Amino acid sequence: MMAQYLEIKRDHQDCLLFYRMGDFYELFFEDAKLASQTLGIVLTKRGKHLGEDIPMCGVPIERSDDYLHKLIASGHRVAVCEQTEDPAEARKRGNKSVVKRGVIRLVTPGTLTEERLLEPGRANLLVALVRQRDQDEKSLFGLAAVDISTGAFDVYVTEFGALGALLARLEPREIVASETLLADAALLGRLQDGGAAITPLNEKAFFGRAAEKKLLDYYHLGTLDGLGPLSHLEINAAGLCLAYIEQTQFAAKPRLNRPSRVETRATLEIDAATRVNLELTRSQSGQRQGSLLSALDRTVTSAGARTLAEWLAAPLRDIEKIALRQDAIAFFVDDPLLRAELRKILRAAPDMARALGRLALDRGGPRDLAALRDGMFTAKQCGAVLAEKKPPFLLAKAVEFLADLDTALPQLLGAALADDLPLDRRGGNFISAAFDQQLDEARALRDESRRIIAALQGRYCEKAETRQLKIKHNNFLGYFIEVNQAQGEKLLKAPFNADFIHRQTMADAMRFSTTELSQLESRITNAADEALAIESRIFGELVAQALDKSAELEATASALAGLDVLTALAEAASEAGWSRPRVDNSLAFQIEAGRHPVVEAALRARGEPFVPNDCDLSGIMGAKGKDIGGKLAVITGPNMAGKSTFLRQNALIAILAQIGSFVPAKTAHIGVVDRLFSRVGASDDLARGRSTFMVEMVETAAILNQATEKSLVILDEIGRGTATYDGLSIAWAVMEHLHEVNRARALFATHFHELTHLRQKLSRLVNLCMRVSDWRGDVVFLHEVAQGSADRSYGVQVASLAGLPTTVVERARKILAELELNDLRTPVERLVADLPLFAAPLQAPEPKHKDALRDALAEIDPDDMTPRQALEALFNLKRVAAHD
């Protein structure tokens, strides 16, 4: 047996080998040591190899999915080695014959299908990546994304600069690429950012003609024209993906849709850093709780949850498609009784797509067939309920499809399947009584034999003079008698040994047989085997009929998922009082009383109100009536006043609007955003040797190099990670570039109050500030956004709130007062007047400089000043007078 193990292991060095032995998967040598540490199971030993004890551990087959989940989550690959013949056949060849075994499947993160191994609300994507260089040595990438649990198969073409954003959108569990491609350190680093497992493959065997042949053979096509106009990159990526699936699934063939091209420009592009900053599907700690998806999700099915996550990952740019979704959501918002009825029906809808995927791979069970049955009946019920109304176009199409569903398959499954279904089909007892006469006859004989066994056990208890005797069964010994150790010693002696034949001694029990039991076993086994064979045949026939209807079943699953998402978004909008936004192709961005959906939900749970705020970044019309670019809003104010919340909420409102959802605002008018960029928060990347400031600069560079006038840019505290003058200079230049070159709609939060003076030169710049109240030296945050600029950052007050020692706080106050009093730097107003704009052509001389003292006086509102603010204003006037 160990010779067989070592031979199989030799071909799967990169995997842990699950070696089937009876009712266990056993692991040996280094695999056993690694598995015992990862799984927390006991490491034992059995036999010797080259004079050394053989380490060993095992997991029961019936619980293997749980252990596989832990191993895959820890980054391991597992080769599943099964017995490929009946042990009885091996025994016929002789006592020393070994049961034939072979690897039937490689379990990897991107090829999971079992329900217990998958996250119900998250797609499980395998991504294959290929590269091509054009005549200008510019890299283009072909990418194929497959979810073998549902059959989804999409292909993409993208550039290196957009690759990270696409991978962040897809969140693959595993990425397959050629060894040559993975040798590129810069590319490998980008692939590793999302935490996916990286698997290298030999590229020569799967590209070009080989890739085309893979596709032709897999889909039984004579030409690739039937797949649509796919490029060589897309074909190579799809071929590589199929090759890897064949390597891992062996003889099993997943049911995959034909590869479909996805145009990345059809959706709002969001890079990886922005997704993390905005916490779209995961919080920054990596948890689902605290994300936008968590706050938004009211779906009642697994497929609906996955669909909502896909919508959120790829908001639309097409205003017509957005409007169709809005119409459907508005329909459900306006009819809460219909919405409640549909959601109640949908709760019974199982995960049809994944059930169908398991059945296609011969990994499904009776419950998967029941999922198809129940899903079809649920779909018909939903269609009937909707047909009584006059739904908008998107829902009307769904109703039309559901009304035409063929009910023959679900009716057949309803008649065939028993009420109480086992998880595994191998034990039988899942076909209803009276469905098949031959099966009923075999079961009757089998069940009668069970009663005979029970009676025989009672008789043997009396003969052995013990109540602890049990008749049991397993695949190796068949039927046997089991007693405890002490009673077994008794049965070995006369007169009991005349009837009881010793079979096996265990640690705490002994096993026996009798001539009568052996004869009875033959009759029972034949009846049980016959019943099981009949059930297996019926199961196969039902699966074949279901797979013949796979296209209709998949469309039904998609329709149910879509209904779930639309009703869920309507539920969320109704609960929180959201409104339907106006979405068009302009440069509008006007939000009235906007709120942060996640923060508001958290405050609502604590019984606290959220302070809403307006935001207007709409493009400004030029002399010829054309938008000349969006507004750039500079936001000043102290930490903890709500700047970051305000920044994020406006970005999230734009995302929600473009998935077709209602938004947390009184009103909203959003011109479609092509790209969304966010640089919020501080983090480092020590693995690549990047400091916090370096990460900030890299992300800012990406924004300035890619943002267009239709983009939305959210920036927070640019330049704060370096010296004051360096930071101020960088922030200043970034603002000018955004205004003059990118011309994007942008929110720019900063503590460099000097930047607010750029309003004098940047025509589309507006100053906003977070309102606070200074009460007897203590700062009170009002969380309101107002026009104008903050006069200071209240850093010392915030430090006091944080709990710094009183002595430190008071010392800081004195130092701050001295610094402000002795500030002899050149007034920023003069710098603004003297420095030309970034990348601006030479301009005519500026008009005569205004009276700085009058300007400073004009900014003072004595009716809205505390005594302390009045004193500070007086000192400021003295400084202005001294430098004018």
From TrEMBL:
Q: Which residues bind ATP?
A: 637-644
Residues in DNA mismatch repair proteins mutS family domain copies:
711-727
Q: Which PROSITE patterns does the entry mention?
A: DNA_MISMATCH_REPAIR_2
Q: GO terms for CC?
A: cytosol
Which GO molecular function, any one, fits this protein according to its record? damaged DNA binding
Coiled-coil ranges from the UniProt annotation: 510-537
InterPro entries attached to this UniProt entry: DNA_mismatch_repair_MutS, DNA_mismatch_repair_MutS-lik_N, DNA_mismatch_repair_MutS/MSH, DNA_mismatch_repair_MutS_C, DNA_mismatch_repair_MutS_clamp, DNA_mismatch_repair_MutS_core, DNA_mismatch_repair_MutS_N, DNA_mismatch_repair_MutS_sf
What SMART domains does the record point to? MUTSac, MUTSd
Pfam families listed in its UniProt record: MutS_I, MutS_II, MutS_III, MutS_IV, MutS_V
Q: Name one GO biological process term.
A: mismatch repair
Which keywords annotate this record?
ATP-binding, Coiled coil, DNA damage, DNA repair, DNA-binding, Nucleotide-binding
Q: Which SUPFAM superfamilies match?
A: DNA repair protein MutS, domain I, DNA repair protein MutS, domain II, DNA repair protein MutS, domain III, P-loop containing nucleoside triphosphate hydrolases
The source's domain of life comes to Bacteria
What job does this protein perform?
This protein is involved in the repair of mismatches in DNA. It is possible that it carries out the mismatch recognition step. This protein has a weak ATPase activity.
What family is reported? Belongs to the DNA mismatch repair MutS family.
PANTHER family referenced in this protein's UniProt entry, alphabetically: DNA MISMATCH REPAIR PROTEIN MSH1, MITOCHONDRIAL (PTHR11361:SF34), DNA MISMATCH REPAIR PROTEIN MUTS FAMILY MEMBER (PTHR11361)
Q: Which NCBIfam families match?
A: mutS1, PRK05399.1
What this protein is called in its record is DNA mismatch repair protein MutS
